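Lay summary. Proteins are chains of building blocks that fold into shapes, and those shapes determine what they do. In this project we predict the shape from the chain. Here is one chain we studied, written as its sequence of building blocks.
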Amino acid sequence: MGRLLGIEGGGTYTRWMVVNDPEAEVICEGKEGIGNFHLLSYDQLVALFRSIREKAGENIEQIGVGFAGCHSEKEKTVLEEIIRDTWPGSKKIVVAEDSRSAYARAFEPGQQGILVIGGTGSNVIGYKEGVWEKAGGWGQLGDPGSGYRIGRGGLERIFLDFDLTKKNSALAQAFLSYCCLNDLSEFLRYVLAQFGRKDFIASFAPIVLEMAEKGDESSLEIVKKEASSLAWRVQIVAERLQFIQPQVALVGGLFENSSFYVRIFGEELKRFLPFSRYFVCNSPGPWGALRLLKLSSSPLSIKSESLLPDEQQRKALDQALTEERNPRSSSLEKKTVDELVDLFISEETFVQSALEKCRKEITSAVLAVCSTLSQGGRLFYVGAGTSGRLGVLDASEMPPTFNVSPEIVQAIMAGGSEAVLRSMEGIEDDREEGYKSILNRGITQKDIVCGISASGRTPFVIAALEAAQERGAQTILVSCNPRRPPCPYADLTIDLPTGPEIVAGSTRLKAGTATKIVLNMLSTIAMIRTGKVKDNLMINLQPKSMKLRYRSLRILMTLYGLDEKTAVKLLGKKGWLLSAVIAEMESEKG
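And here is the predicted shape, written in a compact code that computers can read:
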């Protein structure tokens, strides 16, 4: 029985799937980074396929690949050579542009129809009696109806609306909320810093669609315009192929994730092609790449992450203190506000108790962090959900408080920056992403990685610790669950017994408070031990605001008994850099 590998590469990510032949039952599947021929160097392409080989295995009989940007025969030849070098034992390799594999995903071999791709980019391709026709798919120069065009249209519109009214429109307010920014000037700097990334611009499309569905006129105008432009391309292809009643398949994230966009596009399509019939194709992307190998059957089963934990995972969760019900907080809805406030205050005593019980473990972890930073290493926090956000919060405070490089203390958040602002809880189960996050940050044996997981079992965090340990970095696991499963990838552990939460399972409460205090100690004590504090005063702060310049002035006056005029003069000479003034003062003393 042979193993077949299907790979679908796109501008946002690359998906792959291994099935057996002839049953076409899925053996394994996964996801990698960008898969676009024009966005990756030769070495990056090699690395991408080698990464797939590590998970999919070397024993592959046939490989079908649909790859974005792979238009010419030369490009296909280059890709085929890389793939053959990666899987030298493979008997058959078929490489095509991703639109061809997407068509194969939606239609049976030889079936006639039109495919509409609506994701980060867009494309329309049709097939009839051996003839292929295409419209669109020109990247940033012509992706009508795509996430990129809808997102860009929204970005352009909010600044036009501001020019006209001097007010932030409803869409502008939604964008600011999404990015957690305060005004359009700040937002503009944020957007321009990443404007070259299609996936970044496309990330604003769901907001435009959501606002359009709520009735925002500007957003609805953008969506209808783009949907109409894409539907027009369908008419162009249909006319060239002389289709009267074409079957139109819709694939891509926009269609698969927004029934509203499907409806708007369907209305526009009916204006151009009244007798067309359309449907959304939900089969997995790599299945189209497999069909390039002339497979006709459908996969018998799609192995994806289970929606529920397995028996071993359930046992670990059932035993977790963080999941237990708190006997002191029963019947919360019947309590008065005064009673609830008293309850919350009284529960904080468990935080103090948990910290005291872990004094020895905390001390060991702090010493390890101090040693790492004093030798030029870096501290990385890794977490998901609330735990990840606590890491982001602590890391982000280091540059303004102690004037150290953002590289010194970093946070790795499951789901990236988007997950900081809104819940993406499902990402915590992605072991592969957790493992890759360590590789992507270039962590070495000089660094220390602190995994944060209230339950002590978060797959994203555990996999990150595994990768860090393999690379020689020292590792710490901070949990609030002394009953957690063993973690062989943690050199040091801190298991804070904060007990059941007031609201069962809501670890942003006591567990979050206790964890934040531990992170405070790890970073702050390390800053103290590496000379960023004198007495109990922060002497390495950045004088970037009136408040901080005034604080610098008061600290200098306090430390050396100076009057204000003298202190201002000394700070002025050093650009208000307090640490430089102190270094000079100490040099003169010694």
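What the prediction tells us: The longest strand covers residues 2-9.
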